[in-house]
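<purpose> Linking amino acid order to shape
<body> The protein record starts here
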Amino acid sequence: MAKVDFISELHTRTKRNYIQRVMEYDKAECAAKAKQWGYDYWDGERQYGYGGYHYDGRWLPVAEKMARHYGIKAGDRILDAGCGKAFLLYEFTRAVPGCEVVGLDISPYAIEHAKKEVQPFLRQGNVTELPFADHSFDFVFSINTLHNLYCNQLEKAIKEIQRVGRRDKLIVVESYRNEQEKVNLLYWQLTCESFYTPEEWLWWYERCGYSGDRDFIYFE
């Protein structure tokens, strides 16, 4: 299980006003709307989520880096567990022509508004019950999804990712390394249910027999 970094550069491009989110808005009301995983979360006002999550090509360099690192080639099967609008999956089809992509997300809205090129390969569902056969994907990744689960759901989800992957796997979650990052995470998050340090996440992975790579998102 290796520590890798594919998305920190992308993450740090976004400027965040942590204080504004808790001082100017009803944080509880915003979180309740966000957890409906509908228009408000994806394309509504910023206090409810992304503030408009539209394709702009930012994920292509990430797909290219992942493809090089994991040696992904035409014919390989890739699963995004928590794909959202599937922008990253679409970029894999550009970075590695001939690869097979599959995405799963809990949000019907996200799938309905996903990239049209990969929409036929997406399905609605929960990462705690992946509807795929054992060892059916060469690369399975889950980015910014598992921290949205309660602790009693985490074990199922991690074991499911391990089960369906036959080669490479990657999990990326929000985390914190110190009190400042912890406060920033608590202020900024809308959908997070599992708040753990990297060491605690590693405990979960080891407990569940997860053998893939890991990365963490920090709110510095």
The beta strands are 77-81, 100-105, 122-124, 137-143, 165-174, 213-217.
